[in-house]
Amino acid sequence: MTHPPQPSRAERPQRERRGQDGKGANPERLYTITGGGEGAERAPLDLVTLIIARADPPPAAPPEQAALLRLCKSPLSTAEISAYLSLPFSVVTVLLGELLAAELVQARAPVIRGAVADRSLLEAVMHGLQKL
Fold first, then answer.
1. How far is residue 14's CA from residue 37's CA, in Å, rounded to a whole number?
2. Is 105 in contact with 72 (CB distance < 8 Å)?
3. Residue 125's CB: how many other CB atoms inside 10 A?
């Protein structure tokens, strides 16, 4: 399994400032990333929704969105995006909502393993082909 390219140090958004005890994120930074809450709606995404970039980041894109678009050149789940960018899932869904509205990313449901054909059906097809 190949890992997605990690954003370079310059592209990677700064991690939240932590208190002396190492706990707690800077809520002002998260508020700013999501556009100050104005029109910031979360996209209806879950942790396993796959995201793939449809375009390169525009020059005026905020650093977090640019890093997200570069990261999603191959499909990634929203949980992976949240982990790679070190951002809370709720912030990632707001960013993805903006990118989905701008049609810069595409959201896909994950491949469900149960959708694979039944083994007995595959064996019946194989035996039928062997008889030809």
1. 20
2. yes
3. 11
